[in-house]
Amino acid sequence: MTAPSRTPSDSNRAAIQQLESLERAGLRVIGRAGRSGSRSQTQAVVPTTKSVEAAAPSAHRESVAPEVNVPSDTQQDTLQIIQAEVAACQRCGELASTRTQTVFGVGNPKARLCFLGEAPGADEDRQGEPFVGRAGQLLTKIIEACTLARSDVYILNVLKCRPPGNRTPLPDEVSNCRGFLDRQLAIIRPDFICCLGSVAAQTLLETDSPIGRMRGKLFSYRGISVVCTYHPAYLLRNPAAKKDVWDDMKMLLAKMGIELPKKSESAGRTSEAGGA
Asked: What CATH number is associated with residue 208?
């Protein structure tokens, strides 16, 4: 049994709770500002009551919100506040009653790049960390083929609870968890997001386009560049798609200004780590 759809008043309360949690972390709302400035002073977008009401999903538009000045030394503390809220969440009755624990996210809170997946699986539900099962091991190899490490990036999912039987998240479940996702990204404020699979891509960008059509393109989420590719779990079932993922990773790295050594690029084309 899923939770009922959220009303405008529910959204209002969620937005107020977002701001209150940030205030409890010692942050203050400032006027709207651009993305100029150093990474040491992260500009995090947090929806206000008005912007939540105005940003209807059917409109496929980004909400306009004031920005919150989040000093880099408080990012982890602020994420922990939200993580505690996630751990206590009971919005989705079925998920709350069947989960072992919630799975918030892991990695560098100052990361330039976030990897966004769908939902925790059995291994993630047991360990409390995203992407630690077979698909997670493949994602680690992909990250390493990109000359990065898991500690360099931030990894999270759309849902923070495992759907029973690893089924596809229901619309109400995605809606209930969306505020947590937006707040995580608002605090981390990465330069790039890599969506892994159709649920992640469609949720973040509010579209119904299939993942195959979204590959190879650059999208934008609140000023953050977004690349979409296949989920590592899909690659385990369809090894031929690894080449497509590696092509997407090379496009992403080029946009990030990361040049692959020739040896790494060659290895990526021929090994499971690179996905070709």
From this structure: 3.40.470.10
